Every structure is written in structure tokens, then in C-alpha cells.
Amino acid sequence: MASRHIGLRTAVLGAAIAGSVYRSVRTIRKARAILPLHEAPPTTVLPPTVTVIVPARNEAAVLDDCLHGVRSQTYDPRGGASGHPSGNDPTLRIMVVDDGSTDATGDIAQAHADADPRVQVVRSEGPPPGWSGKVHAMHVGVESAGHPEPGEWLLFVDADTVLAPELLSRLLATAERADADLVSTPGGPPSEHSASWPVLMPAGLQMIGENADPSGRGSKAFAIGHCILLRRSHYEKMGGWAALAGRRNEDVAIATSVRDHGGITRTVDGLDHVTTSGMDPFRQGWVSFRKSFVAGTQGSLTVLIGGGLGQVALSLTAPVAVLTGVRAHRPVLVAVGLVGWAAQGTAHTRTARVMRAKASLAPLAPFTNALFGGVLLDGAVQVLRRATEWKGRNTGF
Question: Buried (b) or exposed (e) across 123-135, using 16+ Cβ within 10 A?
């Protein structure tokens, strides 16, 4: 009887490890689908207009660096090659949406507008009913830019993101080479960053990639809100942000909508030219991932709890198999566990490399992956808390 019980446990562990290995192989394959960032070729052709939209709510701590990065782009204004405005018809337009800020965000944005005629500040008092805040701010930015121009591109940049000078030119070159209508790149870590990068990023990228594809295939197309470049013609074709008014996972949503309306979407590796401070310190990174997964699951407790527990279970199966095999003197089970452990470590190394995070924690991948399950479970706790607070306000308790 004991032998049968051990055999059943071995079969269960083996099946779980097979699932873990499959996930790891799939992660590595999807990471390979991310496009490299191409050099911008020299051209004498009149470049298209690019309208940059920067939504900003209480971003005084980071907005100045963001706008300096946008203004320093080597993507030339018409009539000049200096990277500075020359005339009244700039190729690069910058719309900063001060989204109901109560700090110095508006003042910082206005200082840049005073120094550079390409910069325009738009004030919004926050989203109306039915809109999420960031989506509405980006909608306001596009609408304030006026009617579409032939060949125009839209570049959406988070306020906590800093672009290197060549980023826009190279991103456009990559989009043209891939014949893509939307390209997106995540931001890499700043020079001083928290443990959220080596601990949370590998598992986070894996889980997002399991639900969205960098090459635009599958049920959802992958995009990262740090930096999204989109042909305005396809933006108009899919209905713009108004078609996604209430969405909170707006990056994946707009990429998927563009794809579903006949566009081509690709994820690009621009992390050497884009940095974000939005994942630091560690708690902020945790909260950022939690918000993303709550939004992506539409606050479903079933998905958040099931996904969180499943992530913990699949991640820890390999160490459990090794420990069980050692105790039961079953070398086959130890070997199977080590294969699963190695697969998770390899996937961790690959995703860490993509995100420019050190891969030194790869040997601990089962445990960092299990920790990420806590992000989803924490999301379930937050959903329950909000539901309880809403019920209390509406019942008078």
C-alpha cells in the first residue's frame, strides 16, 4: 500500500514537473520572438510627424528627466538636424497631459513648454465615468494634437520612463523593417535599482508572456506601456482609446485591438535605450505587477487565487520532488526534479537577460517564481478588500 502511495505521488510530481518544463520552454521560445532594435538608416526622405503623448498625474519626481529625454531625440525637426526646433512645422510634437495633478507636475511641464515650442501642456481634471485614468489622459493628448497627418505616428511614453536620444529613430526603423503598425519596448532598470528586477522581473515577464505573444499571435498581443509606437492610421482604425475607455491593462489591450483590426504588432528589445524607475523600490514593483494582473484578470477572484496557488504549486514541485526522492531513495524522482529545477533556472536566466536584470538568482528560480504567486494572491486580497469597503459604504456599516 505504501509503495502504491509513493508511486501515485511520484506520478503526480512527474506530471507537474512536465508542466513546469513546458512553461519554461515556451517562455524561452517567446523571448526569442522579441525583435532587436535596428539602427536608423540615413535618409533624405521627409520624415513623418511623430506625436509624443506623456500622461502625467503627480509625477513631479520623474517628469523632468522624462521630458528632457523626449526633447533630446535625434529624430530631426523639419529643416534642421540639430535635434532642436526649427520653424513652426516640427516633425516631433510633444503633448504632456497634466492629469489632475496636485503636485508640481504642471509647473515642470510648463517650464519645458516655455523652453521648447514643440512641447504643449494639456490640463485634464481626471477621467469621466466609464474611463480609466491613464487611458483618458492619453485620449486627451491625442485629441489635443488635432487631426491626423499623413503617415503620422503616435508615441506613448510613461512619465517615469527616460528615452535615450536615438530611441525614436531606431524604433521607427525597426517598425519599418518589420512592417509593423505597433511596436513596444519595456524600459530597463536605472543604474541604481531595487531587488524587484532580479526577483520579480523574470517570473513577471514569464506570466505576462503566457497570456500575450511578442509576435502578436495567440489570443492577445504583447505590449508594454512604458513605450508604445503606433501608426495613427491604425489608432483611428481601431477606434482609438475611446474603444478601450474602461481598460486598465491598456498596453496589451491596444496591441490586441490593433492586431484584431488587421495591424501587425511586435515587441522590441529597446532596453538599452529606455529606462524606467516605475518598478523601484521593491514595494513599488510589487504593487505595479499586482495592479497589472488585477487589471488583466478584470479583478476575477477565481483567476487570481487559482493562478496564484497554481504558480506556487508548479514552481515548488521540482524542489519537492528532489527532497521526496532523496528521502525515499528514488534516484529517478531526484533526476526528474533536477530537470524541472534546471528548466526553471534556464527560463529565469533568459527572461532576466531580456529585462537587463542579473541572473544570479537563477538557481533559486523555483522559489522566486513561487514568490511571484504571492503577487496574484495579494491582488485577490486587494479585490476582496475593495469589495468589502464598497459593500460597507452602500449598506451604511
Answer: ebeebeeebbebb
